[in-house]
Amino acid sequence: DYLDRSLTSAYFTQLLPCNVMDFLVLEQYPVTAVTAISAMDMLGTVVAYVVADLMVDEKAGIIRWKDSASDSFLKNHWWSVTYVAGYTTIPGTIKHATALQAIAMLQPLFRSGSSFDQSELIVDSNEMIVDLLERYKRKRVG
Length: 142
Hints:
Helix 1 packs antiparallel against helix 2. It is elongated and about 55 Å long. The protein has helices spanning 92-111, 125-133; strands at residues 10-18, 23-25, 31-40, 46-49, 54-57, 62-65, 77-85. Helix content is 20%, strand content 30%.
């Protein structure tokens, strides 16, 4: 939830509105493949484009045309992009942050015992979780 995206590798189809931009930002990333891209105009006419004409910033989930001088994502069109994104193996830091969150969620259960010692739990786990996940969170684009 903190990263606001799916982490496991899967196929996604996303419909994006466009008002003349050099790039489109996909919701899911890292992107491992773009399999199809098309545009639909206001009349419902759909035009498919060649995926090989795209440059993909895999880590950021941003796509651009290779020839930016002559191509842009057309105004008043809806762009449909089908792609594969996510991790086939979840990075260790994300696993670590998940374990810390599980411990934080279980703290009330630990407190019910008479021999509970809070020093045994990880102190400041929320701050550590944010620190671990920060590099996987998308920064504001534009």
